[in-house]
Structure to design on (242 residues):
């Protein structure tokens, strides 16, 4: 059965569907030796597909990894400016990986990498509301009133955020800073930083500590591990129960 080219590319671990669409539009994809730039193109199972001259392996084993992303690293498989990217930390993994979603350049923490396009799309889709917890160091001594506002949702970019879980972990009067835990299920651009800005506290440092049922337990910055079958199944169970 014919399938859209970008879906086949994502399932083969080239990139997410959105990133695959960009590769197609840039003229970097060939089907049966012909450059294809039309996003509506459908391909058959026996078609030959290559990206940047490299033949697609459609039967590649699906793999899933958890990386403790360091600060100062790009959440991408490649960077045209030559900057360090998250896949640099998994060079000994033979499969072609890409990150599920992204963490900002200056944000550390839990990031999933995979070559399973369907899994990545499900994890990132806002419909499924997968919880993600962040720990932020912010300027100022945050108050219970500000925490209440974060929990009820604040307006960023003209649109209210969903309800969240927020908790003060510590406050340092001498340094005039606070450490706050914030759990959200949305994934809007710079959302956590903008939520704290909305209550008057600029984020100084940010880390994602959980993603669904996953944690960073046992890892230090720059380390990674493969997810178990049970862990992948638990993540899928989260979205299937929505």
């Amino acid at each position: 059965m014919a399938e859209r080219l970008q879906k086949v590319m994502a399932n083969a671990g080239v990139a997410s569907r959105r990133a695959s669409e960009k590769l197609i539009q840039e003229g970097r994809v060939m089907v049966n030796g012909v450059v294809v730039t039309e996003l509506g193109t459908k391909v058959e199972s026996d078609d030959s597909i290559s990206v940047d001259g490299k033949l697609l392996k459609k039967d590649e084993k699906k793999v899933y990894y958890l990386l403790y992303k360091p600060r100062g690293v790009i959440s991408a498989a490649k960077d045209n400016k030559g900057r360090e990217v998250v896949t640099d930390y998994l060079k000994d993994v033979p499969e072609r990986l890409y990150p599920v979603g992204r963490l900002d350049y200056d944000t550390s923490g839990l990031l999933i990498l995979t070559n399973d396009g369907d899994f990545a799309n499900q994890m990132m889709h806002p419909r499924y509301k997968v919880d993600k917890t962040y720990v932020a160091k912010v300027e100022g001594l945050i108050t219970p009133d500000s925490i209440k506002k974060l929990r009820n949702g604040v307006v960023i970019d003209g649109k209210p955020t969903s309800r969240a879980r927020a908790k003060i972990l510590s406050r340092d009067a001498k340094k005039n800073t606070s450490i706050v835990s914030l759990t959200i299920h949305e994934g809007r651009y710079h959302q956590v930083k903008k939520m704290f800005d909305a209550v008057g506290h600029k984020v100084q440092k940010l880390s994602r500590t959980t993603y669904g049922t996953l944690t960073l337990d046992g890892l230090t910055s720059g380390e990674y591990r493969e997810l178990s079958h049970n862990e992948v199944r638990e993540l899928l169970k989260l979205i299937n129960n929505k």
Summary: The first helix runs from residue 5 to 11. Residues 131-211 form a domain with the Alpha-Beta Plaits fold (CATH 3.30.70.1560).
